[in-house]
Amino acid sequence: xxxxxxxxxxxxxxxxxxxxxxxxxxxxxxxxxxxxxxxxxxxxxxxxxxxxxxxxxxxxxxxxxxxxxxxxxxxxxxxxxxxxxxxxxxxxxxxxxxxxxxxxxxxxxxxxxxxxxxxxxxxxxxxxxxxxxxxxxxxxxxxxxxxxxxxxxxxxxxxxxxxxxxxxxxxxxxxxxxxxxxxxxxxxxxxxxxxxxxxxxxxxxxxxxxxxxxxxxxxxxxxxxxxxxxxxxxxxxxxxxxxxxxxxxxxxxxxxxxxxxxxxxxxxxxxxxxxxxxxxxxxxxxxxxxxxxxxxxxxxxxxxxxxxxxxxxxxxxxxxxxxxxxxxxxxxxxxxxxxxxxxxxxxxxxxxxxxxxxxxxxxxxxxxxxxxxxxxxxxxxxxxxxxxxxxxxxxxxxxxxxxxxxxxxxxxxxxxxxxxxxxxxxxxxxxxxxxxxxxxxxxxxxxxxxxxxxxxxxxxxxxxxxxxxxxxxxxxxxxxxxxxxxxxxxxxxxxxxxxxxxxxxxxxxxxxxxxxxxxxxxxxxxxxxxxxxxxxxxxxxxxxxxxxxxxxxxxxxxxxxxxxx
Length: 565
Prior knowledge:
This protein is mostly beta strands. Strands 3, 4, 6, 7 and 8 form a five-stranded antiparallel sheet that branches.
């Protein structure tokens, strides 16, 4: 045993001697090997972004502060990147104000907490917004100081359209349609209405999502799903394999005829999306106004809900034709939605919203059925239907929610239903037409669009209105289509996107048959969850005076905490 002791002592001495050397290696002075430099985003699709590059002598946490060059104490945005993000590969810089000169401060910190500021500030002149009326909307923001506002930034997708009768006639339907549909925008503004990021795409955008990996996902009118980073670079793309436009180079096909309106990322990384199927229906309607009009065989489009993985493989499918009554129809059947997309088909259900629920099931909005339904994702069974109770066949009547209160509390042509954290149902109620064929439609001037909230008792199948965004004395607005809702997590306020608002000045002259000639505008409002509600913040989109009858609408809007990662 004694012979072993000197060798143990030697090992301990060697270990002790090595410790200062190791400590010295990890406390090297923090240095920039190459100083920071800033490059404007090479992708013109997202011009209010830049790329920061530098090299440090060790792994670092990077902090980027974007300042107003004329008022250096005014910080526009702060971004932090941890050691996993390589500054040599480039760090995305976001938060610039359009048409503004900026100063950028960069600092780094190592694992031991040592910090170092870059030796010089960087300068960046953010490009101005497009000046052409058809390229970007006018944005106006009002802040009402009577209630707290949810922090963060607001992202939305402006959509342009032509209303001038002379222009529509001179251009023809095909050119007008191309103008409306071959253009897409995603836009982010701060609370003051400053545009801090936007992305210009090649197709009209419907739903968009912020993915867990920090990227953005959006749906196009031509049945594509596109994943981009904040520089606007396409990372992944999927398309409906049987779409009329054919294959998309480099994209994954999804076994579907269309991909439309709404998409959600699921916890397993898959996507839940709306699709459709067309069928020939015997002895079908030729009018939604005349009950005695002769019947004939018709091609009818019905909605499908799909789940597909990131390879594009469909792993779950639900078909409205197999669960709803194709002969129960609503106004909108002949509106031409699918005709404008190349299909000679009537629009039966017009689903426009889905929501994966915490219990594993799915909420679906059947707009032209004036109905929201809950689907058991395991069996495919409809668990309940909430909406106008008229016209359902006996097998489905048993699924209906019963309104507790006034029948006028039902929603019509609703959008964006969601189950809130309080287990209530929140919808954007366009409140259009307010009846079903073959009753006469209620004129637009007698409608008023709003956000509605309902208490649900799923066991008893009852529903009751408990809140709305209606404010006494507030002028009525009519949203012909679209609309969105969001419960804001910190304040409990409600964010509402108003879709396609009809021209208020000419509302008394409007009919549902001449909507295409109405000047479009839209707004986003943040409401308190009080009764009556209060307007906390409002954003409006419009167009300057122009010969096109150009106007702007939006599919949806969301409040987000931060730009980028």
